[in-house]
Amino acid sequence: MTPEGTKPTADAGQSAAGDSAKDAAKNRDEIALDLMKFIAVTTGYGKGNAPAAGFSGKAGKSAEEYADALIQLFEKCREVVAKPVSPPNQAR
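The structure assignment produced for this chain is given below.
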């Protein structure tokens, strides 16, 4: 049985409002995660410089540094997704 199935029925009205807020937050986090994945994959964000053939450049970032860069990117994406959208100005 899931934890939701064990809730008392008296909290049903209060739980529905809390669940919709949780769903909205979860949805925003999923959108932020998708945005982070898109940016990271298309730009190579956080990977560092890959040495070219014949040249020895800087060593790439460690796995921990790469993970930290992705976490920072995710936090930025969450901030952007959480911003309210303002309606466009209508010219007359």
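Interim note for the steering committee: Residues 33 and 41 are 12 Å apart (CA to CA). The radius of gyration is 21 Å.
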